[in-house]
Here is the input.
Amino acid sequence: MDTLTVKTTARQQFVDITMQVARFIADSGIANGICYLFCPHTTAGITFNENWDPDVQHDMALNLDAIAPQRPDFRHAEGNSPAHVKTGLMGSDHHVFVENGEPVLGRWQGIYFAEFDGPRTRKIFLKIVAT
Amino acid sequence: MDTLTVKTTARQQFVDITMQVARFIADSGIANGICYLFCPHTTAGITFNENWDPDVQHDMALNLDAIAPQRPDFRHAEGNSPAHVKTGLMGSDHHVFVENGEPVLGRWQGIYFAEFDGPRTRKIFLKIVAT
Amino acid sequence: MDTLTVKTTARQQFVDITMQVARFIADSGIANGICYLFCPHTTAGITFNENWDPDVQHDMALNLDAIAPQRPDFRHAEGNSPAHVKTGLMGSDHHVFVENGEPVLGRWQGIYFAEFDGPRTRKIFLKIVAT
Here is the structure.
Protein backbone atom coordinates (compact mmCIF):
# COMPACT_ATOMS: atom_id res chain seq x y z
CA MET A 1 0.00 0.00 0.00
CA ASP A 2 1.29 3.44 -0.90
CA THR A 3 0.25 6.90 0.23
CA LEU A 4 -0.22 10.18 -1.63
CA THR A 5 -0.21 13.44 0.27
CA VAL A 6 -2.36 16.37 -0.78
CA LYS A 7 -2.19 19.83 0.77
CA THR A 8 -5.40 21.72 0.29
CA THR A 9 -5.64 25.48 0.50
CA ALA A 10 -9.37 26.19 0.83
CA ARG A 11 -12.40 25.01 2.77
CA GLN A 12 -13.80 23.30 -0.32
CA GLN A 13 -11.51 22.40 -3.19
CA PHE A 14 -11.18 19.88 -5.99
CA VAL A 15 -7.51 18.99 -6.47
CA ASP A 16 -6.55 17.18 -9.67
CA ILE A 17 -4.45 14.19 -8.56
CA THR A 18 -4.33 12.46 -11.95
CA MET A 19 -0.60 13.07 -12.41
CA GLN A 20 0.23 11.78 -8.93
CA VAL A 21 -1.81 8.63 -9.55
CA ALA A 22 -0.17 8.20 -12.97
CA ARG A 23 3.28 8.47 -11.38
CA PHE A 24 2.37 5.85 -8.76
CA ILE A 25 1.20 3.53 -11.54
CA ALA A 26 4.36 4.10 -13.60
CA ASP A 27 6.58 3.49 -10.56
CA SER A 28 4.83 0.19 -9.85
CA GLY A 29 6.07 -1.24 -13.14
CA ILE A 30 2.65 -2.84 -13.71
CA ALA A 31 1.49 -2.49 -17.31
CA ASN A 32 -2.06 -3.80 -17.07
CA GLY A 33 -4.13 -3.86 -13.93
CA ILE A 34 -6.42 -1.94 -11.63
CA CYS A 35 -5.35 0.92 -9.39
CA TYR A 36 -7.44 1.29 -6.23
CA LEU A 37 -7.76 4.53 -4.26
CA PHE A 38 -8.99 5.00 -0.71
CA CYS A 39 -9.45 8.26 1.17
CA PRO A 40 -9.17 7.70 4.96
CA HIS A 41 -10.86 10.99 5.88
CA THR A 42 -14.52 11.59 6.73
CA THR A 43 -14.68 15.16 5.44
CA ALA A 44 -12.93 14.63 2.09
CA GLY A 45 -13.43 12.18 -0.75
CA ILE A 46 -12.39 11.27 -4.27
CA THR A 47 -14.31 11.76 -7.52
CA PHE A 48 -13.89 11.76 -11.29
CA ASN A 49 -14.74 14.90 -13.18
CA GLU A 50 -13.87 17.04 -16.19
CA ASN A 51 -10.28 18.32 -16.09
CA TRP A 52 -10.48 20.77 -18.98
CA ASP A 53 -12.70 23.62 -17.82
CA PRO A 54 -12.18 24.55 -14.12
CA ASP A 55 -15.68 26.00 -14.14
CA VAL A 56 -16.96 22.43 -13.93
CA GLN A 57 -15.35 22.08 -10.48
CA HIS A 58 -16.79 25.46 -9.52
CA ASP A 59 -20.26 24.33 -10.51
CA MET A 60 -19.87 20.99 -8.73
CA ALA A 61 -18.86 22.81 -5.54
CA LEU A 62 -21.78 25.22 -5.91
CA ASN A 63 -24.24 22.37 -6.35
CA LEU A 64 -22.84 20.43 -3.39
CA ASP A 65 -23.18 23.56 -1.24
CA ALA A 66 -26.81 23.85 -2.37
CA ILE A 67 -27.74 20.27 -1.44
CA ALA A 68 -25.55 19.95 1.66
CA PRO A 69 -25.76 23.37 3.32
CA GLN A 70 -25.41 24.10 7.01
CA ARG A 71 -28.87 23.07 8.33
CA PRO A 72 -30.48 24.38 11.55
CA ASP A 73 -31.39 20.83 12.67
CA PHE A 74 -27.85 19.50 12.38
CA ARG A 75 -26.55 18.23 15.75
CA HIS A 76 -22.85 17.45 15.15
CA ALA A 77 -21.06 19.96 17.39
CA GLU A 78 -18.02 20.36 15.17
CA GLY A 79 -20.14 22.24 12.65
CA ASN A 80 -18.77 20.38 9.63
CA SER A 81 -21.72 18.13 8.89
CA PRO A 82 -21.97 19.47 5.30
CA ALA A 83 -18.45 18.11 4.74
CA HIS A 84 -19.45 14.66 6.03
CA VAL A 85 -22.51 14.62 3.76
CA LYS A 86 -20.52 15.68 0.68
CA THR A 87 -17.93 12.99 1.43
CA GLY A 88 -20.65 10.34 1.45
CA LEU A 89 -22.00 11.64 -1.86
CA MET A 90 -18.60 11.62 -3.63
CA GLY A 91 -17.30 8.42 -2.06
CA SER A 92 -14.05 7.39 -0.39
CA ASP A 93 -13.16 4.32 -2.44
CA HIS A 94 -12.58 4.31 -6.17
CA HIS A 95 -10.67 2.46 -8.87
CA VAL A 96 -9.22 3.22 -12.27
CA PHE A 97 -8.04 0.76 -14.91
CA VAL A 98 -4.39 0.56 -15.92
CA GLU A 99 -3.34 -0.19 -19.50
CA ASN A 100 0.17 0.17 -20.90
CA GLY A 101 1.37 1.55 -17.59
CA GLU A 102 -1.12 4.43 -17.58
CA PRO A 103 -4.47 5.15 -15.97
CA VAL A 104 -7.35 4.67 -18.39
CA LEU A 105 -9.43 7.84 -18.35
CA GLY A 106 -11.75 9.50 -20.79
CA ARG A 107 -10.50 12.40 -22.87
CA TRP A 108 -11.89 15.05 -20.49
CA GLN A 109 -11.68 13.00 -17.31
CA GLY A 110 -9.42 13.58 -14.31
CA ILE A 111 -9.16 12.07 -10.82
CA TYR A 112 -9.93 14.64 -8.12
CA PHE A 113 -9.29 14.79 -4.42
CA ALA A 114 -12.37 16.49 -3.01
CA GLU A 115 -11.65 18.59 0.07
CA PHE A 116 -14.71 19.64 2.05
CA ASP A 117 -13.23 20.79 5.37
CA GLY A 118 -9.87 22.32 4.52
CA PRO A 119 -7.35 23.65 4.38
CA ARG A 120 -5.56 20.52 5.62
CA THR A 121 -2.84 18.05 4.74
CA ARG A 122 -4.58 14.90 3.56
CA LYS A 123 -3.70 11.34 2.58
CA ILE A 124 -4.87 9.00 -0.14
CA PHE A 125 -4.02 5.30 0.04
CA LEU A 126 -3.25 3.42 -3.18
CA LYS A 127 -2.90 -0.19 -4.26
CA ILE A 128 -2.34 -1.61 -7.72
CA VAL A 129 -3.08 -5.16 -8.84
CA ALA A 130 -1.97 -6.69 -12.13
CA THR A 131 -4.71 -8.19 -14.33
CA MET B 1 -9.85 -4.60 -21.00
CA ASP B 2 -13.06 -4.84 -22.97
CA THR B 3 -15.54 -2.19 -24.09
CA LEU B 4 -19.32 -2.09 -24.17
CA THR B 5 -21.09 0.41 -26.38
CA VAL B 6 -24.38 2.01 -25.37
CA LYS B 7 -26.47 4.21 -27.62
CA THR B 8 -28.70 6.49 -25.64
CA THR B 9 -31.81 8.11 -27.07
CA ALA B 10 -32.67 10.87 -24.59
CA ARG B 11 -31.04 13.68 -22.66
CA GLN B 12 -31.38 11.73 -19.40
CA GLN B 13 -31.84 7.98 -19.49
CA PHE B 14 -31.13 4.89 -17.41
CA VAL B 15 -30.19 2.00 -19.72
CA ASP B 16 -30.21 -1.49 -18.22
CA ILE B 17 -26.84 -3.03 -19.19
CA THR B 18 -27.13 -6.11 -16.97
CA MET B 19 -27.43 -8.49 -19.94
CA GLN B 20 -24.42 -6.97 -21.71
CA VAL B 21 -22.33 -7.29 -18.55
CA ALA B 22 -23.55 -10.87 -18.04
CA ARG B 23 -22.54 -11.73 -21.60
CA PHE B 24 -19.08 -10.24 -21.08
CA ILE B 25 -18.71 -12.34 -17.93
CA ALA B 26 -19.87 -15.52 -19.65
CA ASP B 27 -17.51 -14.93 -22.58
CA SER B 28 -14.56 -14.51 -20.20
CA GLY B 29 -14.92 -18.10 -19.05
CA ILE B 30 -14.28 -16.99 -15.45
CA ALA B 31 -16.60 -18.72 -12.99
CA ASN B 32 -15.79 -16.84 -9.79
CA GLY B 33 -14.35 -13.36 -9.62
CA ILE B 34 -15.06 -9.67 -9.69
CA CYS B 35 -16.17 -7.72 -12.74
CA TYR B 36 -15.10 -4.07 -12.74
CA LEU B 37 -16.83 -1.34 -14.73
CA PHE B 38 -15.54 2.11 -15.62
CA CYS B 39 -17.36 4.86 -17.47
CA PRO B 40 -14.88 7.18 -19.25
CA HIS B 41 -17.38 10.02 -19.67
CA THR B 42 -17.89 13.07 -17.45
CA THR B 43 -21.60 13.49 -18.18
CA ALA B 44 -22.70 9.87 -17.74
CA GLY B 45 -22.16 7.29 -15.02
CA ILE B 46 -23.10 3.83 -13.81
CA THR B 47 -25.45 2.86 -10.97
CA PHE B 48 -27.36 -0.07 -9.53
CA ASN B 49 -31.11 0.21 -9.22
CA GLU B 50 -34.37 -1.70 -9.34
CA ASN B 51 -34.95 -3.36 -12.71
CA TRP B 52 -38.54 -4.45 -12.18
CA ASP B 53 -40.63 -1.27 -12.14
CA PRO B 54 -39.45 1.35 -14.69
CA ASP B 55 -41.10 3.98 -12.49
CA VAL B 56 -38.11 3.68 -10.16
CA GLN B 57 -35.84 5.02 -12.91
CA HIS B 58 -38.37 7.77 -13.61
CA ASP B 59 -38.35 8.78 -9.96
CA MET B 60 -34.54 8.64 -9.76
CA ALA B 61 -34.30 10.94 -12.80
CA LEU B 62 -36.88 13.29 -11.30
CA ASN B 63 -34.99 13.47 -8.01
CA LEU B 64 -31.65 14.05 -9.72
CA ASP B 65 -33.23 16.88 -11.74
CA ALA B 66 -34.48 18.39 -8.48
CA ILE B 67 -31.09 18.36 -6.75
CA ALA B 68 -28.93 19.13 -9.80
CA PRO B 69 -30.99 21.64 -11.80
CA GLN B 70 -29.63 24.30 -14.10
CA ARG B 71 -28.51 26.99 -11.61
CA PRO B 72 -28.13 30.71 -12.39
CA ASP B 73 -24.65 30.82 -10.78
CA PHE B 74 -23.24 27.99 -12.87
CA ARG B 75 -20.27 29.15 -14.98
CA HIS B 76 -19.48 26.20 -17.28
CA ALA B 77 -20.21 27.57 -20.73
CA GLU B 78 -21.33 24.27 -22.24
CA GLY B 79 -24.49 24.43 -20.13
CA ASN B 80 -24.33 20.81 -19.05
CA SER B 81 -23.17 21.29 -15.47
CA PRO B 82 -26.19 19.37 -14.12
CA ALA B 83 -24.91 16.34 -16.08
CA HIS B 84 -21.45 16.67 -14.50
CA VAL B 85 -22.97 16.89 -11.03
CA LYS B 86 -25.23 13.87 -11.55
CA THR B 87 -22.26 11.87 -12.85
CA GLY B 88 -20.33 12.61 -9.66
CA LEU B 89 -23.32 11.54 -7.56
CA MET B 90 -23.82 8.21 -9.38
CA GLY B 91 -20.13 7.40 -9.85
CA SER B 92 -18.00 6.25 -12.77
CA ASP B 93 -16.37 3.15 -11.27
CA HIS B 94 -18.24 0.16 -9.95
CA HIS B 95 -17.86 -3.58 -9.42
CA VAL B 96 -20.08 -6.61 -9.27
CA PHE B 97 -19.23 -10.07 -7.95
CA VAL B 98 -19.16 -13.08 -10.27
CA GLU B 99 -20.26 -16.53 -9.09
CA ASN B 100 -20.87 -19.54 -11.34
CA GLY B 101 -20.15 -17.42 -14.38
CA GLU B 102 -22.88 -14.90 -13.61
CA PRO B 103 -23.06 -11.45 -12.03
CA VAL B 104 -24.28 -11.58 -8.43
CA LEU B 105 -27.18 -9.18 -8.11
CA GLY B 106 -30.15 -8.91 -5.80
CA ARG B 107 -33.52 -10.13 -6.96
CA TRP B 108 -34.69 -6.68 -8.05
CA GLN B 109 -31.28 -5.25 -8.90
CA GLY B 110 -29.93 -4.30 -12.33
CA ILE B 111 -26.81 -2.51 -13.58
CA TYR B 112 -27.65 0.79 -15.28
CA PHE B 113 -25.78 3.08 -17.58
CA ALA B 114 -26.86 6.56 -16.52
CA GLU B 115 -26.93 9.05 -19.39
CA PHE B 116 -27.16 12.69 -18.35
CA ASP B 117 -26.22 14.55 -21.54
CA GLY B 118 -27.56 12.45 -24.39
CA PRO B 119 -28.44 11.27 -26.84
CA ARG B 120 -24.95 9.96 -27.55
CA THR B 121 -22.97 6.81 -28.27
CA ARG B 122 -21.14 5.93 -25.08
CA LYS B 123 -18.55 3.45 -23.88
CA ILE B 124 -18.12 1.40 -20.74
CA PHE B 125 -14.80 -0.30 -19.99
CA LEU B 126 -14.79 -3.71 -18.33
CA LYS B 127 -12.28 -5.96 -16.64
CA ILE B 128 -12.79 -9.26 -14.87
CA VAL B 129 -10.48 -10.84 -12.32
CA ALA B 130 -10.77 -14.41 -11.02
CA THR B 131 -10.96 -14.81 -7.23
CA MET C 1 -18.09 -15.15 -1.50
CA ASP C 2 -19.31 -14.70 2.05
CA THR C 3 -22.44 -13.07 3.45
CA LEU C 4 -23.03 -10.78 6.41
CA THR C 5 -26.51 -10.40 7.84
CA VAL C 6 -27.72 -7.12 9.29
CA LYS C 7 -31.03 -6.68 11.11
CA THR C 8 -32.18 -3.10 11.02
CA THR C 9 -34.67 -1.65 13.48
CA ALA C 10 -35.80 1.61 11.88
CA ARG C 11 -36.97 2.99 8.54
CA GLN C 12 -33.68 4.81 8.05
CA GLN C 13 -30.60 3.71 9.96
CA PHE C 14 -26.83 3.67 9.65
CA VAL C 15 -25.47 0.44 11.17
CA ASP C 16 -21.74 0.29 11.90
CA ILE C 17 -20.54 -2.97 10.33
CA THR C 18 -16.81 -2.31 10.76
CA MET C 19 -16.39 -5.07 13.36
CA GLN C 20 -18.22 -7.63 11.22
CA VAL C 21 -16.06 -6.77 8.21
CA ALA C 22 -12.92 -6.92 10.37
CA ARG C 23 -13.92 -10.37 11.62
CA PHE C 24 -14.48 -11.58 8.03
CA ILE C 25 -11.03 -10.31 7.09
CA ALA C 26 -9.38 -11.95 10.12
CA ASP C 27 -11.13 -15.26 9.40
CA SER C 28 -9.88 -15.21 5.81
CA GLY C 29 -6.28 -15.43 6.99
CA ILE C 30 -5.27 -12.88 4.33
CA ALA C 31 -2.82 -10.32 5.69
CA ASN C 32 -2.63 -7.88 2.79
CA GLY C 33 -5.31 -7.42 0.19
CA ILE C 34 -8.56 -5.74 -0.73
CA CYS C 35 -11.94 -6.54 0.81
CA TYR C 36 -14.89 -5.92 -1.50
CA LEU C 37 -18.44 -5.32 -0.31
CA PHE C 38 -21.65 -5.53 -2.28
CA CYS C 39 -25.16 -4.76 -1.09
CA PRO C 40 -27.76 -6.72 -3.12
CA HIS C 41 -30.68 -4.50 -2.10
CA THR C 42 -32.17 -1.55 -3.99
CA THR C 43 -33.34 0.35 -0.92
CA ALA C 44 -30.19 0.05 1.20
CA GLY C 45 -26.52 0.74 0.53
CA ILE C 46 -23.09 0.97 2.09
CA THR C 47 -21.08 4.07 2.98
CA PHE C 48 -18.07 5.24 4.97
CA ASN C 49 -18.60 7.84 7.66
CA GLU C 50 -17.44 9.07 11.04
CA ASN C 51 -17.87 6.44 13.76
CA TRP C 52 -17.11 8.62 16.78
CA ASP C 53 -20.04 11.04 17.11
CA PRO C 54 -23.42 9.42 16.31
CA ASP C 55 -24.71 12.92 15.52
CA VAL C 56 -22.87 12.66 12.20
CA GLN C 57 -25.16 9.80 11.18
CA HIS C 58 -28.16 11.80 12.38
CA ASP C 59 -27.10 14.74 10.22
CA MET C 60 -26.42 12.52 7.20
CA ALA C 61 -29.91 11.02 7.53
CA LEU C 62 -31.44 14.48 7.90
CA ASN C 63 -29.65 15.73 4.78
CA LEU C 64 -30.63 12.68 2.74
CA ASP C 65 -34.26 13.20 3.79
CA ALA C 66 -33.99 16.81 2.62
CA ILE C 67 -32.65 15.97 -0.84
CA ALA C 68 -34.62 12.76 -1.40
CA PRO C 69 -38.02 13.46 0.14
CA GLN C 70 -41.31 11.93 -0.90
CA ARG C 71 -42.15 13.97 -4.04
CA PRO C 72 -45.66 14.49 -5.47
CA ASP C 73 -44.50 13.55 -9.00
CA PHE C 74 -43.03 10.19 -7.97
CA ARG C 75 -44.74 7.29 -9.77
CA HIS C 76 -43.36 4.15 -8.12
CA ALA C 77 -46.41 2.61 -6.46
CA GLU C 78 -44.55 1.07 -3.54
CA GLY C 79 -43.96 4.55 -2.14
CA ASN C 80 -40.30 3.95 -1.30
CA SER C 81 -38.70 5.97 -4.11
CA PRO C 82 -36.75 8.09 -1.59
CA ALA C 83 -35.05 4.87 -0.45
CA HIS C 84 -34.09 3.98 -4.04
CA VAL C 85 -32.65 7.46 -4.59
CA LYS C 86 -30.64 7.40 -1.35
CA THR C 87 -29.28 3.97 -2.26
CA GLY C 88 -28.01 5.32 -5.58
CA LEU C 89 -26.37 8.25 -3.80
CA MET C 90 -24.56 6.10 -1.20
CA GLY C 91 -23.68 3.23 -3.55
CA SER C 92 -23.99 -0.55 -3.36
CA ASP C 93 -20.38 -1.56 -4.12
CA HIS C 94 -17.38 -0.54 -2.06
CA HIS C 95 -13.92 -1.72 -1.10
CA VAL C 96 -11.53 -1.31 1.79
CA PHE C 97 -7.82 -2.09 1.89
CA VAL C 98 -6.47 -4.85 4.14
CA GLU C 99 -3.08 -4.56 5.84
CA ASN C 100 -1.76 -6.84 8.60
CA GLY C 101 -5.07 -8.70 8.61
CA GLU C 102 -7.13 -5.60 9.38
CA PRO C 103 -9.25 -3.16 7.37
CA VAL C 104 -7.39 0.09 6.68
CA LEU C 105 -9.61 2.94 7.85
CA GLY C 106 -9.02 6.48 8.96
CA ARG C 107 -8.98 7.27 12.66
CA TRP C 108 -12.62 8.42 12.70
CA GLN C 109 -13.85 6.25 9.84
CA GLY C 110 -16.28 3.33 10.01
CA ILE C 111 -18.07 1.17 7.43
CA TYR C 112 -21.82 1.64 7.57
CA PHE C 113 -24.73 -0.34 6.27
CA ALA C 114 -27.26 2.30 5.21
CA GLU C 115 -30.86 1.17 5.64
CA PHE C 116 -33.43 3.33 3.86
CA ASP C 117 -36.55 1.13 3.87
CA GLY C 118 -36.40 -0.81 7.11
CA PRO C 119 -36.78 -2.42 9.45
CA ARG C 120 -35.64 -5.50 7.57
CA THR C 121 -33.13 -8.35 7.63
CA ARG C 122 -30.50 -7.50 5.04
CA LYS C 123 -27.47 -9.10 3.44
CA ILE C 124 -24.04 -7.84 2.44
CA PHE C 125 -21.82 -9.92 0.17
CA LEU C 126 -18.06 -9.94 0.75
CA LYS C 127 -14.97 -11.08 -1.13
CA ILE C 128 -11.33 -10.66 -0.20
CA VAL C 129 -8.38 -10.82 -2.60
CA ALA C 130 -4.72 -10.97 -1.54
CA THR C 131 -2.42 -8.30 -3.02
Notes: The helical segments of chain B are 18-28, 55-67, 81-90. The domain at 2-130 of chain B is CATH 2.60.120.460 (Jelly Rolls).
